[in-house]
Amino acid sequence: MTGVDVTSSVEVSCSPAELFAIVEDLSVYPTWLSIVPKATVVDGDAGDPGPAWAVDLRGRLGPLARSKRLRMVRTAHEVPTHVRFERGELDGREHSPWVLDAEVEPTEHGSRLTMRLHYGGSLGGSILEHMLRDEIEESRPRLIARAADATNR
Asked: Which among 3, 73, 104, 153 is least surrounded, fewest beta carbons within 10 Å?
């Protein structure tokens, strides 16, 4: 199997604008997404379509733990409905693609977030997919709480 694609959706009680503020900036992700323990803004490159972040990814499946640092660039930014981040390394080497795409839409009682994560490499396959799904499910309550906090501000 080459590549991993994971899609997850969640409904939250805040407005689309409040939810979008949580997902448009990777620096905020460590507060709610367990697979991102650290994300810091880095200097951009002239070829970048948007801001860039150094993102640490970490996941665990049983006794196995993996970590990876990626340079991610915001490649789409349609406030307050869509944001996309893509791997954009500057070392001149070819790297497996990582793409995180988030869509926000209004619902009757707040908003729905649908996130799609694509990893285009061959490392990990179904094990990586399982690990990502587990980590996303564990992070769901933190995102819901963060969205509730945004509503109460």
From this structure: 153
Looking at residue 1, its pLDDT comes to: 45
Instruction: Please give the DSSP secondary-structure letter assigned to residue 19.
Output: H
CB-CB contact of 117 with 100 (8 Å): yes
pLDDT digit string, tens, across residues 37-77: 999 999 988 889 999 999 998 877 677 777 889 999 999 99
User: How much is the pLDDT for 142?
Assistant: 93
Q: What 3 state SS string does 116-147 have?
A: EEEECCCCCHHHHHHHHHHHHHHHHHHHHHHH
User: Could you say which DSSP state residue 1 is in?
Assistant: -
Q: How would DSSP label each residue in 30-48? A: GGT-TT-SEEEEE---TT-
109 burial (CB, 10 Å; 0-12 / 13-18 / 19+) is exposed
- Tokens 């991102």 correspond to 36
Establish how many alpha carbons lie within 13 A of residue 53's alpha carbon, considering only the half-sphere containing its beta carbon: 22
Let me know if 12 is exposed, middle or buried by CB neighbors in 10 A (0-12, 13-18, 19+). buried
Question: What amino acid is encoded at 34 in this protein?
Answer: S
Sheet containing 110-119, strands listed edge to edge, beginning at the edge strand earlier in sequence: 4-12, 110-119, 98-107, 82-87, 64-78, 52-61, 38-42
